[in-house]
Amino acid sequence: MSQLILVTCLIFISATHAGTASVEWQDPDSYLDIRHSNSGKLQFRKSLFNQFEKHFSKLAQDLPDDVELKIKVTNLNLAGDVRYSFAMHREIRIVKHTYWPMIEFEYQLNKGNQLITSDTVKLKDMFFMDRGGSFRLSHDSYFYEKRILTDWFDKTLQVMVAEQHDLELEQSSD
Length: 174
Hints:
This protein is of the alpha+beta class. The chain has three helices and six strands. The strands form two sheets. A four-stranded mixed beta sheet has the order 1-2-5-6, covered by helices on one side. The protein has a two-stranded antiparallel sheet with strand order 3-4. The longest helix is centred in the last third of the chain and has 31 residues, at 143-173. The termini are far apart. 19% of the residues are buried.
């Protein structure tokens, strides 16, 4: 019986949060570093953009169901740098402290037709290799970049949505 209640609660919790996200990639040819060492430019971009779009969608699932996050990525610099390896006879991405991840974007957070907030954001993590949750233990592509996005989402957007919700409750009780 307790398992049934737990499953029912989990279904209810997931049903109450299902925000959406849309991502636009503005002028990717001007991005600082979205090079890959092993695949063609177009194939890599498609895969890279797909991974980030999935990540933004995953984050947005924690928003209320009537909230939409619109992102316009204006610059991206992946962790590491692509260099030619003479030993391997091909290019490889070298990840060192000096090649930190950075992403710049504009966002809008809308609830229905109402704009909650919008801003231009530049995120970077110069200490990305010194933080907990080592990349070596993760099989997730773009772990470092996704981590700074998740941190921003949790510390900024989730707080704004909670404040907006509290304000709405306060106004409705007056």
